[in-house]
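Methods — Computational structure assignment.
A single polypeptide chain was analysed. Its primary sequence is given first, followed by the predicted tertiary structure written as structure tokens.
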Amino acid sequence: MQASSKKWLSFSLSALALTALAQAPSIAKDETIIGSGATASKLDIVNELKRRGSFHKTLDGLSIAYNMDNQLKGRGPFTFFAPDDKAWGKMPGEDQTSLFGNPKRVSEVLSYHVLKGQRLNSDAIAMQKTLQPMDLKHKITVSSKDENGKKALYVDKARIKEADIQCSNGVIHIVDQPIMPILAE
């Protein structure tokens, strides 16, 4: 083989390899991203909250709480009672500042919002009297009330205002206020 043929062959193989590498990201399935690049039919819990856009405080807390956000991107299954930004607004600003300034406390509170190893829809929740959250120290009380001819489902004192949001690794139920465990001093 002549030197010019070897150079051309080497150049062609290099170009082919670079083209293949450039195409690899578009072929690979990344089930953790949101937006037009997402390939999963359902997003994980964290990315579903990001997509909805009204969960900034919860997402900040999950990040502060010893990277709970990474855990809720994991395999699951999880049931997550997610307070939206309006729900966090029911907590006095001073209490929010204190809570979110302490990673251990925010971890305790947000762990109380998660049922690990369970994907419970609202019908399954309604059949329970209590639920065991991820923190394992407390129990969440389940109740229901008749409101305007409809049955409203509550976890502790928080009303589930939107239920059964299916995600790739669990289910989200949006609550109208944070649910609070009894915190150790």
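Note: The chain has eight helices and seven strands.
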